[in-house]
Amino acid sequence: MLWDLNPLVETFISAETWKGDIDEKMFEIDFNYPKKFIPSWSKLDYWHPREFVEVLSTLWGFYHDHPSPLLAIPLLKITKYFSYAEMEFPKLYKSKVAKERVERLLSSRWRETMKDMYWKEVDIVIRKVREFQSLHPHEVSGVVKGGVDVLASEPPQVDAVITSPPYLQAQEYVRTFKLELFWMGFTEETVRNLSKMEIPYNNPPEVKVQGRTYYDFLEKVKKMNHQGLLKIYTTYFSSLLYFFSRVKAKKLGIFVGQVKMRDVRIPIDEILKEHLESVGWAHEKTYIDTIVNRRLKKMEVNPATKMKDERTPKEHLLIMTK
């Protein structure tokens, strides 16, 4: 059973675990489709030149009349590329590099480029699906739910829970996928509601955190004299620990990275371990992996803090048992 706040997870998982036949014919799309789809998004013109919207709306009109998780993947790729959005940044961000990309496209034969890119992305999808199928995955029953507010949903009885919560404020997941959500047909009201559920920008019940490490670092955050960061810190741990208090499982695996708030690196896994141990969980092991390959682009200066951008060096997998 997979839960995620992002509703697009249902499309992504359906495409990634495709079991049927797959070939290029399944991706044929009408670039001259008569019915257009315009996202219900007040900032559409801010993120896309009108020229691109004219063609993209035709492609998405075809998609919404012929929905397919496989078809959505290459469409989402070209839609973001033909926008002012930075391609490899952990939030929707209008960068100088992206503006230059758009200007180059507009001064070229961009319609042909869009078609070529679409079919290159199709080839990638077909290759990945065939690679997955070649591994002969076991037939299993599963449930995928997107748009889930984990704090308002009752966790089921399971053997194990494995989760990779946000690393404090390191990535804003809903904001990252805003552009894709609107083209997939979600409204501004829905996206706003999803943002309100996102950790650590949500409003969880207050939790009394157990353990010295949490309070040691709470004092360090308070010394930053930034109420926004203080709220993120307290809300983050309240959200996670409230959810873990309701988990019905024998084993718990938590992927976390020790990210920085300003110049203070927060030992998230140690804080979670101390609290969980105090409420009856036993620490089995913490696996530590140095992050070598990164999908997200490195920035010399963090645009939010104006400080030197320092990547999270390692990822920790905290294993707790009952």
How would you portray this structure in words?
This protein is α/β, with parallel strands linked by helices and 322 residues long. It folds into two domains: 18-134, no CATH class; 157-321, no CATH class. 43% of the residues lie in helices and 12% in strands. It has helices at 9-16, 44-47, 50-65, 69-81, 96-106, 110-134, 173-176, 178-183, 188-197, 212-222, 227-246, 268-278; strands spanning 2-4, 144-146, 160-163, 251-257, 260-261, 264-265, 282-290, 314-321. A four-stranded mixed β-sheet has the order 3-4-8-7, covered by helices on one side. A two-stranded parallel sheet has the order 1-2. It has a two-stranded antiparallel ribbon with strand order 5-6. The model has no long low-confidence stretch (mean pLDDT 92).
User: What class do helices, strands and sheet pairing give?
Assistant: alpha/beta
How many domains comprise the coordinates? Answer: 2
Please provide the count of β strands.
Answer: 8
Give the overall pLDDT as a whole number.
Answer: 92
Sheet-strand content, in percent, reads 5-15%
What global shape is seen?
globular
Helix content: 40-55%
Total helical elements: 12
Instruction: Give the distance, in angstroms, between the N- and C-terminal Cα atoms.
Output: 20 Å
Across the major sheet, the strand order is: 3-4-8-7
Largest sheet: 4 strands, mixed
Unreliable stretches? none
The succession of helices and strands, N to C, reads: EHHHHHHEEHHHHHEEEHEE
Radius of gyration: 22 Å
Keywords: Methyltransferase, Restriction system, S-adenosyl-L-methionine, Transferase
GO molecular function: DNA binding; site-specific DNA-methyltransferase (cytosine-N4-specific) activity
